[in-house]
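Table S2 (continued). Query chain:
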Amino acid sequence: MHLIDPFEFRDLFPSVRSLAVIGNSPSILEWNNGQKIDSADLVVRFNRARTAGLEEKIGRRTDVLFVNAANSLQKAAPPKQLCQPRCLVCFVSPAGSRMVDIGPFAEWAGDVPVLFSFGPDLIGLPAPTRQRPLTSGTYALYTLLRLFAIDRLFVTGFTMFGATEGGAGKYWNEPVPHAASAHDLDHEAGLFVSLLTAHRGELELTPEVAALAAQNGFRPGATTRTRSSPLSKRIAAGLAWRFLGLGMVLRRAAESE
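Corresponding output:
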């Protein structure tokens, strides 16, 4: 593999002032944000994100693809065929790193530069009691907002796997993935929104992210895109979040016995 260190990663993007963070929720296909996304200095996507044929909606550029070490050619085409990223970033846990089979991942990554790092400690944010690592989206948002002086932030495609309207699966029609049960999503939503709240520059969220923010106590400013939703959708999204939260509580109770 072509491994790089954090300093080489910074050097790849020397003049970043605007950032577009693109999640994998089906909600990203509801708007034509391709031009807006491609206008950002840094465009970030996740895991098996793909852009071919969807450029008008989700853009064509990918600067950084945040991935997990379980990716392989058996799971997806290599990154160069999916979205042509300039580099990959892979967060691992100290325990999980000992269980990673690096061979299949290296074959999948090809010659795209890769930065391996432990997931960062979210210093300065609330510290809820959680037992699992965070998703790549939260780690990525925290890391990038500290590595770069971001004046303009655009975030789309995050629903915490169905906590808000927009879908629980992935936009390439993958059903609800294992990740939905591998993270403490009820706690993580608050952390994710805390990062948005702390951002002091221009912030633009698509409606599903704005809804997630509102459910966690943040009211987006005037720069946030909003769009009215049918009452039935708003009720369904609210119930979904409550059921998801209850499920997390019950799971933790069962695991503590």
